[in-house]
Design brief:
Helix content of chain A: 25-40%
CATH topology of chain B: Formate dehydrogenase/DMSO reductase fold
Number of strands of chain B: 2
Number of strands of chain A: 0
Order of helices and strands of chain B: HEHHHHHHHHHHHHEHH
Shape of chain B: globular
Oligomer: heterodimer
Number of domains of chain B: 1
Largest sheet of chain B: 2 strands, antiparallel
Strand order of the largest sheet of chain B: 1-2
Number of helices of chain B: 15
CATH class of chain B: Mainly Alpha
Chain lengths: 254, 420
């Protein structure tokens, strides 16, 4: 048996042996690990070399100016000035080398623009956003907006600009001749912050009764005169009108 | 989007409330990450209980000393399994240690863990059992004789000087062990508390709350094991010991509860921008696991039960069986409560959107590496390891020496018989 130094307790000496063996194993393992696995700096260098080896596909933000100066200048003055040409047209390095051989893509579908301009609450306030289903469906974006010089969002003139679906429904209903403002008061602010300030909605039966109550037969308003009449006291009891009738497309029973 | 992903998301999407970002739909830290702080907590708690004997000289809980050390070891061996399994390549776990990434809190946990395992727990257990192992090696024959000799590192030194050194070493290791145990579980809390982007986690109190809940769960679990194992081993439960341990458990629960209340009040008073979504989450998705299980069943009810046994001490001192049953229910409830605490921290922190406008939901898998079955297996594994450890390093002499101190002298009088 190995003779341990006299003064050291036996147990401590044995533990020391274990400790030394463990440390030695770890040290050998450490030496055996290849340097790229241990050094972050070597990993970073390798990453740079790897990236550098990839083929270049993009021509850069200023390459297009040389030939397409006019469009380039127009875009530079407009709201899309921070976008590079290749953001929409795709990588164009081959096009700059031989303009006739390859042509960059021209995105023309609606699905392209809404990647940035569809409504999404996580986008910054004031960023132009639309509801793709409601905003002039089926029309290509470039039909109204010039992508090289998009105009800032203007206040919609008509309710139908945003509420297209309701407008289309109302257009084929018996309420076609009513203005939206007959029933809703939309404050000017609603057009600027549509979710912040909401238009009013009718609150009670009496509102519908202004045209549809039996005792309004004598009214001078032409539209109200021809509206179907009911007895407010008997019809519908305690329910409000829009629990049964959809105001944007009311059915009529004669 | 591929069909599998669509099918998978289709189950979660209807559960989403409000607006959440696309990468928040699925919860990525699932059941395994709940199991991990729970198991680590038990380690720290069990060790603190062991230190009561060695450092603070609480003689009554001597029967729990070895059991708590072995419990700590059994749970410590399983603690990193949950983590490395979750990372997806359990076979590569050693690379965390061989190629250290000092800027990653998660990666550095490997070193805290290794320190605790090698420098504290294994050393302490070795010193405690060294002379016993030498004796067992003499008694046994064949393979077990060799196993014990190898475990004792072929030491044969049973001299008074050697034993005295063991005692000194034990004391030193336990003193180093207490801050190490604090470090171990404080670190788990730190991993969550230092994520500043997540208001549910980001709090300096989290490591401390974790620590005290760890002490609670560890002490409660060792008491539970003691109450189950002792009768199975043919012994009698030492009620003096259990009473004392429950005393410490009671104080730990009170501190833990107060800390959590302080954190809650602090949060509510600060009322930062996230308070609305957090309160919504608390009242909907976390209502059952936080309010009902963690607070009501896991804290207030056990506190009430233990308080009753304390307030009517005289009446209860006559009825050991009733006291045993009440303690048993309390420690069991506390286990569920602490597990719910881990659940609420881990899952709760991922259920609300960082936009503070919506909530997602957690859909637990059943099978698979992240599933319920695997998590249950991980929760059972320490019990299996403990059973093996109890077989190899039996603590019976100490556990079953009812009412006697280390030297075999009787401590205190016999308690009156039930109904006397």
């Amino acid at each position: 048996m190995v003779k341990f130094p006299e003064k050291m307790p036996d147990s401590l000496a044995r533990l020391l042996v274990v400790f030394v063996v463990l440390t030695a194993v770890l040290a050998i393992a450490w030496v055996m690990i290849p340097t790229p696995m241990k050094s972050v700096h070597v990993q970073w260098d390798n990453a740079i070399l790897r990236e550098k080896a990839k083929p270049m596909r993009y021509a850069g933000a200023h390459a297009c100016e040389e030939c397409h100066g006019e469009i380039y200048g127009k875009k530079k003055a407009g709201y899309h000035r921070d976008l590079s040409c290749e953001t929409c047209h795709g990588p164009a390095k081959t096009h700059t080398e031989d303009p006739d051989k390859t042509k960059p893509a021209i995105p023309a579908t609606r699905s392209f623009c809404v990647q940035c301009h569809a409504y999404n609450p996580s986008r910054p306030r004031g960023f132009p956003q639309i509801n793709p289903q409601g905003h002039n469906p089926l029309k290509p974006c470039a039909g109204c907006h010039n992508p090289h010089d998009p105009k800032p969002p203007t206040t919609p003139k008509e309710c139908s600009a945003c509420h297209g679906e309701i407008a289309r429904t109302k257009a084929v209903s018996h309420h076609v001749q009513l203005e939206c403002t007959t029933c809703h008061q939309a404050p000017q602010q609603h057009k600027i912050t549509p979710r912040g300030v909401k238009p009013t909605k009718p609150q009670n039966r009496e509102f519908c009764g202004k045209c549809h109550a039996k005792d309004t037969r004598e009214t001078r308003e032409k539209l109200a005169k021809s509206a179907p009449k009911i007895d407010m006291a008997e019809h519908g009891e305690k329910y409000v009108c829009w629990q049964c009738h959809y105001p944007h497309s009311p059915e009529v029973e004669n | 989007m591929n069909q599998d992903l669509m099918r998978h998301l289709a189950e979660i999407l209807p559960q989403i409330q409000g607006f959440i970002y696309p990468n928040e739909v699925e919860i990525h830290w699932g059941m395994l990450i709940v199991v991990y702080p729970y198991i680590t907590g038990v380690v720290a708690g069990a060790f603190i209980l062991a230190s009561l004997v060695k450092v603070f000289n609480v003689k009554e809980v001597q029967p729990l000393y070895r059991l708590s050390l072995l419990t700590a070891l059994a749970y410590l061996l399983v603690a990193p399994m949950a983590l490395v399994s979750h990372l997806g390549h359990p076979g590569r776990f050693y690379e965390i240690l061989l190629t250290p990434q000092t800027s990653s809190a998660m990666a550095m946990f490997g070193f805290v863990y290794a320190w605790y395992l090698m420098a504290v727990l294994l050393l302490e257990i070795w010193f405690v059992h060294r002379t016993d192992m030498i004796a067992w090696a003499e008694e046994k024959t064949g393979v077990m004789r060799f196993v014990y000799r190898a475990l004792a590192l072929f030491s044969r030194d049973t001299s008074a000087r050697g034993v005295e050194f063991d005692h000194k070493a034990l004391k030193t290791i336990t003193i180093i062990g207490i801050p190490s145990a604090f470090l171990l579980h404080g670190y788990v809390g730190f991993i969550f508390g230092s994520i500043k982007a997540n208001p549910w986690w980001s709090s300096v109190l989290i490591p401390i709350v974790f620590l005290f809940s760890a002490i609670v769960s560890g002490i409660a679990l060792v008491i539970l094991f003691y109450m189950v194992i002792t009768p199975l081993a043919g012994g009698k439960i030492n009620m003096k010991c259990v009473d004392k341990a429950v005393d410490f458990l009671f104080y730990a629960v009170i501190v833990d509860f107060s800390l959590e209340v302080v954190e809650f009040i602090h949060r509510v008073y600060q009322s930062e921008e996230e308070i609305k979504i957090l309160s919504e989450m608390l009242m909907s998705k976390l209502f059952m696991s936080l309010i009902v299980i963690q607070v009501m069943l896991g804290m207030i009810l056990p506190l009430a039960i233990i308080s009753v046994t304390k307030i009517f001490r005289h009446r209860f001192s006559l009825n050991e069986d009733l006291r045993k049953m009440l303690y048993f229910i309390s420690v069991l409830l506390i286990q569920f409560g602490i597990f719910a605490t881990r659940w609420n921290v881990v899952i709760g922190g991922q259920m609300f959107s960082k936009s503070f406008r919506g909530l997602t939901t957690y859909k637990m898998e059943f099978g698979g590496l992240e599933g319920l079955l695997f998590a249950l297996a991980l929760l059972m594994l320490p019990v299996v390891i403990l059973a093996i450890l109890l077989k190899v390093l039996p603590p019976w002499k100490e556990m079953l020496a009812e009412g006697k101190d280390g030297d075999g002298r009787a401590v205190g009088g016999e308690l009156p018989a039930p109904g006397a």
